[in-house]
Amino acid sequence: MSTELIAILSVLGGAGLIGLFYISHSIEKQRRQRALMIANLSDYAFRLQRLLDSIPPAYLGKDIQLVLLGQIKKRMEKLKQLAPNNDKFRKKLDSTNEQIAEISAATTKQAKPQLKNPEEANQIRVLLQELSKVIEGYTQNKVLTVDEARKHLTFIQASFIDANLNFLLQVAESARQEKKTKVAILNYEKALAEMKKRNKKGEHNERIEQINAIINELKLESGQTVQTSSDADNELDQAMNELIEEEDAWKKKYF
């Protein structure tokens, strides 16, 4: 074999090895990108499902549930394409489709939950804030129109206010049981202001009377002066103004 032929074969062999290296590197890069895409899609779908599972349905409403499930379905379909042999993704897609069908067909309005403790109420408030960020992101990503997002954020805001009312009452009741009178009165009064602000149709009249009676009882027990209805209304008006400012801050942030 001539020296020239050996040199040519050596060059070809080296080029082949280099080509094989680049092909192998490209395949590994694609494998890593695919694995990263699967992880991101799966994690995001899990995050949305956690919101659906953790927030009471009445605080989500039918439309928001369908928006979240639609986004989960979209990602499960992509995951099924990326990993066709993964049975977990197939089952999750089937489950999501069943949830969509069930919620779409539902006609009964969900009752608002009775939260058991301050921790539960506060956790729901945190989750609703997280949900607001998700909806806001859908506007930026053109998943939702501005009007659609505005409608959903308004619903979430109302749910947040209701959860906040639950939280105040739970904190007040816990403080009352622990004989922390000042803390109990403060949170009962905040809850009272919130209910008065939302009492346009008189649906909270009975509860307002009950809380007023509790506040007066606590004040008498601690030697405080029980306010006249006029004085109490002035303080409640001030608290209501603070709550209105909180609502305005919410709207400015998301709208």
Biggest pleated-sheet summary: none
* Sheet/helix structural class: mainly alpha
Number of strands: 0
Tally of domains: 2
Radius of gyration: 29 Å
Q: Counting H and I runs of at least 4 residues, what is the number of helices? A: 8
Strand content: under 5%
**Low-pLDDT segments, ≥5 res:** none
The topology string of helices and strands comes to HHHHHHHH
Residues in helix, %: over 70%
C-alpha end-to-end distance: 80 Å
Average predicted local confidence, pLDDT: 81
Task: Please state the overall shape, judged from the principal axes of the Cα atoms.
Answer: elongated
Keywords: Coiled coil, Membrane, Transmembrane, Transmembrane helix
Transmembrane segments: 6-24
Coiled coil: 185-249
Protein name: DNA repair protein
Tell me what you see in this structure.
- Residues 185-249 form a coiled coil.
- The model has no long low-confidence stretch (mean pLDDT 81).
- The protein has 2 domains: 1-109; 112-255, no CATH class.
- It is built from 8 helices and no strands.
- It has helices at residues 3-54, 57-82, 87-105, 118-140, 146-177, 181-197, 205-221, 229-254.
- The chain has 255 residues and is mainly α.
- It starts with a helix and ends with a helix.
